[in-house]
Amino acid sequence: MNKKWAVKRLTVNLTSEETEKLERYCDITGRPATDVIRELLRTLAVEKEEQSHSQHR
Asked: Which residues contact 25 (CB under 8 A, 6 or more apart)?
């Protein structure tokens, strides 16, 4: 799989509980946090949210 990315660094502030949850998940799955966060972002239904938001204006 050949990926060409425009890389942008992002800092996210997490609570200690959120950090622990992410770390536990990464330990269980053996995946790096970056991959987990990218996957979660890909699952966001942005198009549906934009349509819903524009209908309420």
From this structure: 31, 36
> Which residue type, as a one-letter code, is found at position 49?
E
The residue ranking higher by pLDDT, 47 or 30, is 30
Q: What is the per-residue pLDDT across 8-41, written as a single tens digit (0 to 9) for each?
A: 899 999 999 999 999 999 999 999 999 999 999 9
Residue 33: other Cβ atoms inside 10 A: 13
**How many other β-carbons are positioned within 10 Å of the β-carbon of residue 45?**
9
Q: 36 and 25 in contact (C-beta within 8 Å)?
A: yes
- pLDDT the model gives residue 52: 74
Mapped onto helix, strand or coil, the DSSP state of residue 39 is helix
CB 17 within 8 A of CB 6: no
